[in-house]
Design brief:
The chain has two domains: 174 residues, no CATH class; 81 residues, Alpha-Beta Plaits. Helix content is 35%, strand content 28%. The chain has nine helices and twelve strands. Strand 10 and strand 11 form a beta hairpin. The longest helix is centred in the last third of the chain and has 20 residues.
Length: 279
């Protein structure tokens, strides 16, 4: 296996440069903060950015947990990985990762200063320090379920060639980990229910009233809405619209990953006046 390393202090923009450096050096796979990444997909691992403390994040990034290391080692073997770029804050961190994963030490160590300008590095440091933002070199859709409840921002990098449409070069995600100085936030289930019901009632054919049941999972939430609907409407298109709008608004306003929205037409009403009939 051909192993390369990209080394730089925390917050200097390594994850932002990861895909570019890997592409330029022929590395088909990337190890970054506990994740094994290939072609914009997370193949295995657990992101250090999900840890609640800095110490926990460091341990996760160097595969201190044997089960975590075993999972990634198995995937490396399964995928027959022949070229790998490892990101780390120091040579010793790179060595620790290689030891934990039973892979060769890097044949080439690239410094962040070799691939980024002083301005780029200073900008990355400022963003990390002032906004607590961290980059993960995969599209937001790929990690959405793993970061349910975190604020995620997609980042897309395009290349412009004169006379041709913009070409998408790579996609990344920006996340604010719970161990950042910004602290934690919580959202009460009642708030989620109110948002869901308000959104549902904006769809023509949905009346007042209703109830919401919420099932919480590590990867996101499942919502069940019991609604009042207008007598005589075609239910399938209306309820489908409710499903889509509720999922979209909840994800936008709360950063939660909505796994499923189940809709039950529980009551009906006539001529805009509520005359509920039990469902």
């Amino acid at each position: 296996m051909r192993v390369l390393a990209l080394v730089g202090k925390s917050g200097t923009g390594k994850s932002h440069k990861a895909q570019q450096v890997a592409r330029q050096n022929g590395a088909r796979f990337i190890i970054d903060d506990g994740l094994l990444i290939h072609e914009n997909r997370v193949l295995a691992g657990y992101s250090a950015k999900r840890e609640s403390t800095r110490l926990g994040a460091i341990k996760r990034a160097i595969f201190y947990d044997p089960a975590h290391a075993t999972e990634v080692k198995s995937k490396l073997s399964e995928m027959k990985v022949d070229s790998l770029l490892i990101l780390g804050t120091s040579d010793s961190m790179i060595n620790a990762i290689c030891k934990a994963l039973d892979i060769p030490l890097p044949e080439l160590i690239i410094r962040i200063e070799d691939v980024s300008t002083p301005h780029e590095i200073n900008t990355a440091k400022m963003v990390r320090k002032s906004k607590g933002k961290h980059v993960i070199p995969v599209p937001t859709l790929e990690i959405k379920k793993d970061f349910s409840g975190y604020f995620l921002d997609p980042m897309r990098i395009f290349r412009e060639i004169k006379g041709k449409p913009l070409e998408l070069l790579e996609e990344k995600s920006v996340v604010r980990p719970t161990y950042s100085y910004m602290g934690k936030y919580t959202i009460n289930d009642t708030t989620i229910s109110q948002i869901a019901l308000y959104t549902a009632r904006q769809v023509p054919g949905i009346g007042p009233g209703g109830r919401v049941y919420i099932e919480n999972y590590e990867s996101g939430v499942v919502l069940k809405l019991e609604l009042t609907v207008l007598y005589g409407i075609s239910l399938p298109p209306v309820l489908k619209q409710v499903q889509e709008k509720v999922a979209q608004v909840i994800e936008h306003m709360t950063a939660l990953n909505v796994l499923k929205v189940n809709i039950i037409a529980k009551n009906i009403y006539f001529n805009e006046r509520l005359k509920s009939i039990g469902g």
